[in-house]
Amino acid sequence: MAFGAALRRVPAETLARAQMWGTVLATALGVGALAGAGQLGVAYGLGLVRFARTFPTDGLWSTQLTWVAWFAALASLAGGVAGAGAARRYALVRQLGGRILVAAAGGLGATIVVPLTALPADAAGLVGRETAAPSLEVALAAGLGAVVGILAAVAALSVRLVAVSLTLLVTLVWLIALVSVAPALAPTADLPEVRLGVLDLPAAGGPGPAAAVLTPAIVALLVCAGIAVAARYRGLSPLLAAVSSTAAPGLLALVYLIGSPGTGERAVQAAPYAGALLAVAAGLLVSLAIGVIRLPSAGGVDGPDGSEPVSAPGPEPVTPPGPEPVGAPPATPPSPTRPPEPEPEPEPEPKPEPERKQKPKPKPEAGPKPEREPRPIREPRPEPPAPRSSRRRGHRREEQQEQHVGWISALAGRSGSDEAGSEEAGSEEAGSGGAKAAGAGSDEGRSDSRPSRRRLRRDRDRDHPDSTGAKHDPAGG
Question: Taking the domains of the chain in order of start, what are their residue ranges?
Answer without folding.
Answer: 11-158, 172-294, 402-419+434-477
